C-alpha cells in the first residue's frame, strides 16, 4: 500500500512515468516497490529542471518545523518561502515569496519537450506557519504551458497572446479559502465552462477565480495538492482541469480549450507564490513563512 502522502500526490489509477521528491519514512527507495514507475529525485533545482528563477527571491532547502499534527510521513526537507512584512507581488517595492518554473526529473522534462504529452498531473505539499495571516489572498504554484516562450508570464493581467499560453496556479483567499486561478485562452467556451464551477468569478483583466472555498488551508498543517490537466484536441473543447486536495477531488472542469495550435504543450509547473494582488492592502502584515515539499508529477498520456 502506498504511503498516504504519495497516494494523494498521485490520485490516479495509471500513468506513463512519474517523479517525486517524497521520501518514505522507512526508505526512499520503497516507492519503487509498488511498480508505479515513479522516479525518486532530490529536492534540488538541478534535479527538477528549475529555470527562470526570480533572482531577488530565495527558496532555500530547509528542515521545516513540525506540523500541528506530526506524522512519520511529514516532509524532512522543504523549500522555504519568505514573505517579509509589507511584501506583495514580485513587481512591487517589497517583493516576497518565490518564483520559478520547473519541468520535473530529467526523463519527465525530456518527455515534455519531445513526447508532447496531452495529459499530466503535478503536485506538492504546502504548510503555512502557525499564526499565518491570510489578508486578502495570494498565489500558489500550478501547471503552465503554451507555445515556446509565449508560455511564460501567462499571468499578471496579461492579454497579449493569451491563445498561446495557459497557467492554472492556485490561490488562497481570506480565512484560508482555496481556489484555482486560471489563465486560459480567452473565449466564451472557457468562460462558461469555468464559471459553471460553483463559486467562480471573472473580470475583464485578470484570470478566472474557480471554485473559491472548495477547500480551506489550515496553518501549521501540511496540505497535499495534485492538479491534472488534459489538453483539448485541436478544434474541440474537450480539455479538462481537475484538482485534488489531500486526495479528494474538489474541482473538475470539463469542456475547456487549453490550446488552439498543436504547438501548444504542457511545460510543467509555474512554482510561484506571493501575497497579492499588487496593491498595499494585499501585503503581508508581518514577516511570514511557508514551506513546499514532496514536489511530484506524472505524464499520464
Automatic annotation (TrEMBL):
<dbReference type="Pfam" id="PF21294">
    <property type="entry name" value="Polysacc_lyase_14"/>
</dbReference>
<feature type="domain" description="Polysaccharide lyase 14">
    <location>
        <begin position="78"/>
        <end position="295"/>
    </location>
</feature>
<protein>
    <recommendedName>
        <fullName>Polysaccharide lyase 14 domain-containing protein</fullName>
    </recommendedName>
</protein>
<dbReference type="InterPro" id="IPR048958">
    <property type="entry name" value="Polysacc_lyase_14"/>
</dbReference>
